[in-house]
Amino acid sequence: MNNLIFNEIMLIFVYNLLIILKEGTKMLDKNTIFDVLTAAMSKGADFAEVFLDDTVASNINYVDKQVESTQSGRDFGIGIRVIRGLNCVYAYTNSFIKEEMINTALKAAAALEGVKKDITINLCKSDVFNRNPIKIMPDIVDKSEKLEYMKQAYSTIMGYDECIKQASITYLDKIQNILVANTEGLFKTDKRVYTRMAISAVAEHNNEMQTGFAGPGAHKGFEFVKEMDIVDISRNAAETAKKMAYAGYCKAGAYPVVIDNGFGGVIFHEACGHSLEATSVAKGNSVFSGKLGEKIAADCVTAIDDATLPNQWGTTNMDDEGGETRKNILIENGILKGYLIDKLNGKRMGMESSGSGRRQNYRYAPTSRMSNTFIDNGSSKKEEIIQTTDFGLYAKQMGGGSVNPGTGEFNFSVQEGYMIRNGKIAEPVRGATLIGKGSEILKNIDMVADNLSMAQGMCGSSSGSVPTNVGQPTLRVSKITVGGR
Length: 485
Fold this sequence. Notes:
- The chain is an alpha+beta fold.
- It has helices at 3-23, 30-40, 98-110, 143-158, 223-227, 230-246, 266-273, 278-281, 343-349, 382-387, 438-443, and strands spanning 47-63, 66-84, 87-93, 124-125, 164-182, 186-205, 208-214, 217-218, 248-249, 253-259, 303-306, 327-332, 335-336, 357-358, 367-368, 372-375, 391-404, 409-421, 424-430, 433-437, 445-448, 453-461, 464-472, 475-483.
- It contains 11 helices and 24 strands.
- The strands form 4 sheets. Strands 1, 2, 3, 4, 5, 6, 7 and 8 form an 8-stranded mixed sheet that branches. The chain has a 6-stranded mixed sheet with strand order 13-12-11-16-23-22, with helices on one face. The chain has a 5-stranded mixed β-barrel with strand order 10-17-18-20-24.
- A hairpin with a 2-residue loop joins strand 1 and strand 2 (66-84).
- The longest helix has 21 residues, at 3-23.
- It is globular, with a radius of gyration of 25 Å.
């Protein structure tokens, strides 16, 4: 590259960075936001929205007694959404120079040109109730302190058994400051702080490798790491890896499966939860479209999406459209009670938003997404479920899988599994996969325990990757296809 051109590019970059560092707070000024929204409405749109995002994130990866990588960075930008009728245009820029933001808004407006309307924009800043108090901001904690906990996890795994050949520990934190404003007068700001550990153990037996994993996280600061029992979590990951390394293969067939609590909820999340999002429901692409009030699950199944649970991984003080987040009952005693709805899809459906509009960052337009999604407690006990199962599979930990959101057909691996024989948990087995359809599995759940717990994951969809909790109590599916040998 020509040195003159390179120097010019660097000068522009430095200038933009100085603007952000020195005048970043001015970009939150109502007058600036007002001018951007006015430009977005200049060609006859019905609605316009601004999403301001300033995120600082860091991660450390520790492998083989050393820091393999460490990264930190800042991502900032503004997303502008323009809606006319049921049509939407989304544009974004990472320049905080007022003229460039206005120019981006004008380009978005031009794509939906119609009859210009007289509209009054009266921005009124409103407070957001904080459900996620933070005790220790992760950006003030020295990297050496974070590493001490990572080393503790690493040594616990590597010292568990000689069959353990590798441990990988990753620490992540993120601080996201957002502002949402729109032509209906909404003007809200929020700060989100996330902290998570990813702990992996690999065991080897007869030249075959098996993995144990844990990924605890929360909408908390570094206090989350200090509060967790990192030795116990790491030991459990190593134990899973060892048991699966020495396990035989699972028997294939169709029979009862008991899915344990916590991450077992990933099946409902993937095979059913996505089909309850307005993203698919509004267009008729979901098996649950048009079925409100109908029985879609067994009587013992109640499913909830609750973005208000304090400090949970999927909790937010407001959604990414500035809407109030809430507890949404999706299924109650087997009856479909509601969907997860964002603003635009709600307009398509003739329904109000459920506070479920989410996005990864300013590069994405929001759409309906899950938050903390779980099957609620039932009336049975875990021990009772096991004891009343003559033969079946106990899926203690679920792994990854794939789902067709239109049909709900899924295929999930079982990370840690055991056969159930004569009402008792028997030998460990590996290689098990659960195959079926979400709409069918809901009807085949015949027992639900009272030991609800949550687990953390990242959910990817059309609006990017967002933190979500999955969860459930221990439950039994009376019959499901199990892949194995």
